[in-house]
Design a protein that fits this description.
The structure holds 2 protein chains of 2 kinds.
Chain A lengths: L5 H11 L13 E8 L5 E6 L1 E2 L17 E4 L5 E3 L1 E4 L2 E3 L10 E8 L2 E8 L8 E2 L3 E4 L19 E4 L7 E8 L20 E3 L7 E4 L8 E10 L1 H4 L23 E18 L4
Parallel strand pairs in A: 1-17, 11-17
Antiparallel strand pairs in A: 1-2, 2-7, 4-5, 4-8, 6-7, 8-9, 10-12, 12-15, 13-14, 13-16, 16-17
Chain B lengths: L1 H15 L1 H8 L6 E5 H12 L2 E3 L2 H4 L3 E4 L7 H12 L2 E4 L4 E5 L2 H9 L11 H7 E2 L4 E11 L10 E4 L5 E3 L5 E9 L3 E5 L6 E4 L9 E5 L20 E3 L5 E4 L15 H5 L25 E5 L2 E2 L4 E2 L4 E2 L6 E7 L13 E7 L8 E7 L2 E7 L6 E10 L3 H10 L26 E11 L5 E15 L3 E5 L14 E26 L4 E26 L4 E26 L4 E20 L4 E22 L4 E12 L4 E13 L4 E12 L1 E6 L7 E6 L8 E13 L3 E18 L15 H4 E17 L4 E15 L8 E2 L6 E11 L2 E10 L3 E2 L2 E8 L5 E7 L5 E2 L3 E12 L9 E8 L7 E9 L2 E8 L4 E9 L1
Helix pairs in contact in B: 1-2, 3-7
The chains are: A mainly beta, B mainly beta.
């Protein structure tokens, strides 16, 4: 009969056995925001993690007096960044080189915050299927498009991507006073003069007329990026069953430290005669 | 205590007349006797020249049978009297045997001269009470049927009185009972939801198969006082297996939310978690719903939810029997890690045409049972919800908006807009036709289709030249414009099986099965704009998301059962399944971004032997299941072993162990805004490995006529289990294929726990109390080096069910308490400005599932009144009122977090509050 009780006892031991400590408390950690463009000087913005609960104690770290270094791991050169205020640090004497690996280091609240990235090469063979795109002035119903006449083919942006790298296209109106395609009742509804296509590993993307909100000249910026940056574009869940962290590439901290390289072409958005 | 009383008496006999008394005790009984005890004793006294002294009126109250295989001697018989009825007996010096109900009566018998009783002989009574067996140790075959409908009853238990021999009927209600000691034996036949019946075999009967007719539970109040004859449980925990049996006909006794629901009812038993309102799928002993195999008349059902999981897809009016194997299941089942739910559909009434149904605030449910000639029976059942108050309430609380107001993207407003109420519903239909072709062959075809259609679509249209501010002015030259925002989810099952059962001889039966099962799930969140310009040209633009999953399972199997002798029952078979699974995800009228097609074959064999030893006290069932899976090109071996041992007829120990593999996995894509979507994918041994589990179960039960007490412990070690990361890219980064590597975590885990049950099985007041303590933990190395609580982990779960019968009224109440489920919460948040200028917010979260939601508890009440109408008998009609969550507990299903202006906001997503329902059940 004694054997009957072996399994229950075994189960009980498991149920009430030792529990490993799990992270359930807020830790004051640094949030890094830094995009390194080839040919530019480095800039890093540091902010504090916003605590979920009010009753947590923050460290005495001053966001504007941190010691931040960037090291070019290919040349061995190292540079300490200079505080610019509001958590922004820069060093104009240091230039980011294409193909080089850069490492970030800063001590924060007892943590050694580190990150590393490679500056990708510039996109090659970027081209547009057309240098103009014609749209009709449309009624103001948000993002709806009615301009699908057969003649209005979308503009295709293409580039070479033999190694399936990540690319993203950002479109930016560069007119000093852009003319809206819509009649906006309220200026607050007016969209930004900039929009993006989602990151892709393909070698082309299409810009349809309905994506544009303004007439005039636009920069089509094709950015080659690292996978760590593409992670930031994943859809996120915000309920307790599926909430998760986006861990890009900052160790002992949060945020992003990534290399980018871009090429730019221009397109002109013109108004067509309508229906 | 009982034995202690008899012993002094026997010892006394030895002292007074040792030789004479011993001779009487050792006298062999050569005949079988049956009837009232007074008649038996009289007849026996005559035949054996013994003088029994007893009170005739007292002994007439004890109907019994004295059989040569049970009580071989007078001493054995006296001992049986003592054990069974606490009787006392005494053998006097002059050879008289006194038998009395207690010591006081014994003394009276000795004092008063009642010896004349034994001189009475009534030949006609005596004739019946003495039987001479013709056959001994023979095999009895037959079938068990419902007395009213003639429908065969599967898994009914038959056991020989006074012996430990027993058997159960198969899925077709047929049985083979080996080594029946004599053809004068009594056979007790029982099945939950039916009156227990004792069949007295008649000697000289030929070898024709026996038909046992059981009566469904009736409501007459007088019956509840008949001790030991009421088995009106809807649910019964097996004492020899890790199994719960359910009789859908008795589900009406349990509280329900307007629908008798088999899956919801199982959740009231220990080991099946009850705190998941938004899943009808069962969490059995720490397993997830997709680890529970659901077999309906032979085909696998892949999805069981109606209305966001609040109800299950099974119409209890179409179901005859359900068995839930909680763990350590036999080798005939496989392909799932945790448990098996085996559902047998009703064949239909073979005696007369029957109609019935239910109407509630939620749905209309109707069925017909139509016999066709003598050989065919048929059943048709249909249920459909209507968009009444209850549907809307449950849909709003548990559905797409999850109890919260979710703001939609800006939509056009203004003059000329028309909107329609969204249309959502569920339905299911069942059909089964059975052909009793010969005495040996039964053919049946079973069909099941259930689906949910959830539509959140608003429709807008504008007449031409509507003159809206900034609208389609005359300048546009457009004559009409309409925008159709589709937002619907459609999911469901289609299953069909064809079965041929053949009884080759008394010992060998074969079942050949061909089945098809299809699960489909479509989510269409798209926008179609149609306009006609002034020259009459119509143009259409489509944009949005279209997601589609389509699983097809084609299975052929052949199972055999060979009752070799009373010690060995062999079961063996072979099966093959072909899976064809497609998953696609498309956007904006473009080609499908993800188009995943999976095909695989699974085939295997299984073998087991049920061995009965030590006068059937010990049953050992070793088994083996071997499977080949084409996706991995591997063979999997799954040894199984279960055993039970009866220390006494009341105290039974059972144990089971085995290895279980799973090849198909369900992925739930959580979507708080639009409702979750599910899809199934196959293991591939690269990104999603074949998962496996090893079970260890041990249980002990103390089973009395009216009460059952049981303790069960389980431990499951799980390996290679996968979890979807829930981070599904709205636009997959790689447009050529779904990047499963990034979306699945794989690791190991375990589930363990102890279940306690105390049940009052019969009487005016019946019910049970159950308690489960458990733990489920997983470890996914990619995510964390530590074990974390699985989402389904519930530490304490307490459930109590009470059913009280009063006249034609039934009252019932259930109360459930359960520890809150674990969840992951943000510890902090941050906002980044991306290179395109957009600001995005991100969470810093705790380790997985380190927090607990508040405890879940709920009281449900129900009352029903039974009556006759349309000239029916047996009180088959009922009107029921129920109250779900009677004290309106705000149970939390999940929390939702948002980062707004540098602060993190938390809100609760609640389960359903207090909800009444009323339903009418009818049958004619």
């Amino acid at each position: 009969m004694k054997k009957i009780f072996v399994l229950p006892v075994f189960s009980l031991l498991l149920l009430f056995g030792c529990e490993p400590t799990l992270v359930a408390e807020f830790q004051d950690k640094a949030v890094v925001e830094s995009y390194l463009h080839a040919g530019n000087t480095p800039q890093v913005k540091i902010s504090r993690l916003i605590p979920f609960r009010d009753d947590v104690s923050l460290s005495g770290e001053d966001i504007n007096s941190l010691s931040i270094t960037i090291t070019d791991e290919d040349s061995g050169n190292s540079s300490t960044l200079i505080a610019q205020g509001e958590g922004v640090y820069a060093n104009s004497a240091f230039t980011i080189q294409e193909g080089h690996t850069y490492a970030l280091h800063l001590p924060y609240n007892g943590f050694s915050v580190t990150a590393s990235t490679v500056i990708p090469s510039k996109p090659v063979d970027m081209s547009l299927s057309s240098s103009t795109i014609s749209v009709m002035v449309r009624p103001g119903i948000g993002s709806l498009s009615l301009s699908t006449k057969a003649t209005n083919e979308p503009v295709e942006v293409t580039w070479a991507n033999p190694d399936n790298s990540y690319y993203m296209v950002v479109v930016e109106n560069i007119e000093a006073t852009p003319t809206s395609i819509y009649d906006w009742d309220d200026d607050d509804d007016r969209p930004k003069p900039m929009f993006r296509m989602e990151p892709t590993q393909a070698s082309s993307t299409q810009l349809s007329q309905q994506s544009f909100s303004y007439l005039g000249r636009h920069n089509i910026i094709l950015t080659r990026m690292q996978p760590e940056y593409a992670l930031l574009y994943q859809s996120q869940n915000n309920d307790s069953q599926s909430i998760s962290e986006v861990h890009a590439n900052v160790n002992n901290g949060y945020g992003i430290f990534t290399g980018l390289n871009s090429d730019t072409l221009q397109i002109r958005v013109v108004q067509s005669s309508g229906f | 205590m009982k034995r202690a009383l008899l012993l002094p008496l026997i010892i006394l006999l030895f002292h007074t007349q040792p030789c004479h008394a011993q001779a009487i005790i050792g006298l062999k009984i050569n005949h079988d006797y049956r009837g009232q005890l007074d008649q038996i004793l009289e007849r026996m006294g005559q035949e054996m020249k013994i003088r029994f002294i007893f009170d005739k009126a007292t002994m007439a109250k004890y109907p019994t049978a004295i059989t040569t295989y049970e009580e071989k001697t007078i001493g054995g018989m006296l001992k049986m009297f003592q054990n069974s009825w606490n009787m006392v007996s005494l053998i006097s010096g002059n050879g008289y045997i006194y038998i009395a109900k207690d010591k006081q009566q014994l003394a009276e018998l000795q004092n008063s001269n009642l010896q004349k009783n034994i001189e009475v002989t009534e030949s006609k009574k005596v004739e019946r009470s003495s039987l001479n067996p013709i056959k001994r140790n023979f095999t009895l075959t037959g079938e068990v049927v419902d007395v009213e409908s003639g429908e065969r009853i599967p898994y009914a238990t038959l056991h020989i009185q006074g012996k430990t021999n027993f058997t159960t009927t198969d899925a077709n209600g047929r049985f083979t009972l080996q080594r029946v000691p004599t053809d004068t034996a009594s056979i007790t036949v029982s099945y939950i939801g039916y009156e227990k019946q004792t069949i007295e075999l008649q000697p000289a009967a030929d070898n024709k198969p026996m038909q046992v007719e059981l009566s469904p539970q009736k409501q007459e109040i007088a019956e509840v006082f008949i001790r030991g004859r009421k088995d009106d449980k809807a649910l019964e925990q097996s004492v020899v297996e890790q199994k719960i049996k359910m009789s859908p006909v008795a589900l009406k006794f349990l509280p329900n939310i307007g629908e008798k629901d088999i899956m919801r009812s199982f959740q009231l038993m220990p080991g099946v978690s009850a705190s998941n309102e938004n899943s009808s799928g069962m969490y059995v002993r720490g397993g997830t719903p997709d680890q529970n195999l659901i077999v309906y008349d032979g085909f696998t059902v892949y999805y069981v939810d109606h209305l966001h999981g609040f109800y299950s897809a099974f119409n209890s009016n179409a179901i005859k029997d359900v068995q839930l194997y909680k763990g350590g299941f036999e080798s005939k089942f496989g392909g799932r890690l945790s448990s098996v739910t085996e559902i047998t559909g009703k064949d239909g009434n073979s005696k007369k045409i029957t109609f019935g149904g239910d109407i509630s605030l939620l749905s209309v449910n109707a069925y017909a049972e139509i016999p066709i000639g003598d050989e065919f029976t048929s059943l048709f059942a249909f249920r459909r919800s209507y968009q009444g108050w209850l549907y809307k309430r449950i849909s709003n609380e548990t559905g797409s908006s999850s109890g919260e107001t979710v703001s939609r993207p800006s939509e056009p407003g203004g003059r000329g807009m028309q909107s329609e109420d969204p249309d959502s519903y569920f339905y299911d239909m069942n059909a089964k036709i059975t052909w009793n072709a010969t005495k040996k062959d039964i053919f049946s075809v079973s069909f099941f289709n259930g689906a949910d259609y959830l539509d959140n679509t608003p429709t807008f249209s504008f007449p031409g030249g509507g003159g809206r501010p900034g609208g389609f002015g005359e300048s546009s030259g457009m004559s009409s414009f309409s925008m159709d925002n589709s937002d619907y989810t459609r999911y469901g099952n289609v299953g069909i099986s064809a079965r041929w059962s053949r009884k080759l001889n008394d010992k060998l039966t074969s079942t050949l099965l061909a089945s098809y099962s299809n699960f489909y799930s479509t989510r269409d969140e798209s926008r179609t704009i149609t306009y006609t310009d002034s020259s009459g040209n119509t143009q259409t633009i489509k944009s949005g998301v279209l997601e589609d999953n389509d699983l097809r399972d084609y299975t052929v199997s052949n199972a055999w059962k060979y009752s070799l002798n009373d010690r060995h029952t062999l079961e063996f078979g072979a099966f093959g399944t072909y899976y064809d699974i497609n998953y696609s995800y498309g956007e904006n009228d473009t080609a499908k971004l993800v188009n995943k097609a999976d095909e695989a074959t699974l085939f295997g064999v299984h073998l087991q032997d049920k061995i009965r030893l030590f006068s059937n006290k010990l049953t050992v069932t070793p088994g083996l299941r071997t499977t080949y899976f084409s996706n991995t090109h591997k063979i999997y071996f799954e040894p199984r072993l279960s055993a039970s041992y009866a220390f006494t007829p009341q105290v039974i120990l059972n144990a089971a162990t085995g290895v279980y593999n799973q090849f198909a996995n369900r992925v739930v894509r959580e979507d708080v805004m639009s409702g979750n979507t599910d899809f199934w994918i196959l293991s591939d041994d690269k990104n999603i490995p074949v998962s496996s589990s090893t079970h260890f179960n041990l249980g002990v039960s103390y089973n009395l006529t009216e009460y059952l007490f049981s303790v069960d412990a389980y431990y499951k070690s799980n390996a290679n289990i996968s979890e979807y990361t829930m981070r599904f890219n709205r636009k997959p980064l790689n447009s050529s294929s779904l990047q499963t590597t990034e979306q699945f975590y794989t690791g190991d885990g375990y589930a363990t726990g102890i279940e306690l049950l105390a049940q009052k099985k019969a009487g005016q007041l019946s019910g049970w109390v159950s308690y489960t303590i458990g733990e489920v933990k997983n470890k996914f190395p990619l995510q964390s080096s530590q074990y974390f609580f699985a989402y389904q982990d519930v530490t304490h779960e307490f459930k109590t069910v009470g059913i009280y019968k009063f006249g034609n009224f039934d009252f019932s109440a259930t109360w459930i308490y359960s520890t809150g489920r674990p969840y992951t919460a943000p510890l902090g948040g941050y906002t980044l400005t991306l290179v395109d200028g957009a600001e995005e917010s991100y969470f810093a979260v705790s380790d997985k599932n380190t927090f607990r939601l508040p405890a879940y508890h709920r009281l449900d009440l129900a009352a029903s009144f039974r009556f006759d109408m349309f000239g029916t008998k047996g009180k088959a009609n009922a009107i029921s009122v129920s109250l779900f969550n009677a004290y309106n507990r705000h149970n939390v299903s999940a929390k939702k977090f948002q980062i707004v202006d540098g602060a993190i906001l938390e809100s609760n997503i609640n389960y359903l509050g207090i909800t009444p329902n009323i339903s009418l059940s009818f049958k004619f």
